[in-house]
Amino acid sequence: MSNTPSDDANVPSEPEPEVEETSANTTSHIPVEQNAEPPAAESEASGSGEGEAVSDGVSPASGGEKRQIWGRTVTLKTAVIAAAAILIIGLAGGAAIGNLSRPAVSTTAEYQSMKHKLSQQLSDTKSELGISQNNLDAANQRVADIKDREAALVAGEAKLKADQAALDQRTQQVQSTQFGDGVHVVGTNVTPGVYSISSSSNCYYAWMTGTGSDADIVENNIVSGPATVTLKPGDIFETSRCGTWTKVG
To answer: Which residue among 37, 80, 133, 245 sits deepest, i.e. has the most Cβ atoms within 10 Å of its Cβ?
Structure first.
């Protein structure tokens, strides 16, 4: 046998990996985060220390137990979120189905009845308004007619007054230039001047001292046929059966 070392002797042996022991106190205070996935290194470390004795008699939680806790937490949150989503979708779907299944307001019997009543009321109101407008127009026409008649009456009254004034003037003129039987005061209702008659029969005329029954006769005369007299202011002239004396000068 040769003293040359063999190949196995020349290959250095690999050092065994050192396993860091984790104390029971450190492991027991590691918080389990509900919203984060447990790190793989911690899971492996927990697996490598499985079965080892820990001081104070407390063994660290294994990686499988942590994954179970985290899985249950995620599953619970997922279930709550899923239930809430299903509830929201159900409510929205129910409302949508209710809206789809509910008939349009304009097609309901109540809507149609109300629409008919309102249309009838509108028609009645328009009819009443038309009647009121016709009555108002008729009343306005009557007022206009009354005003026209009043204006005509005012105009007629003014014309009547004018005609009366003209008649009074002509009457006065006639009275001042003509007179008939009676006792007349010259200068009062008879204008002084020369008067005559064209014909007469038993015409009596006289100048008197007064108008009373006890007045004396100053001068008188009885004629048949034409006659002419001159009257002066202040004369009291009486005539009978002579007709109309007309002023000629």
So the answer is: 245
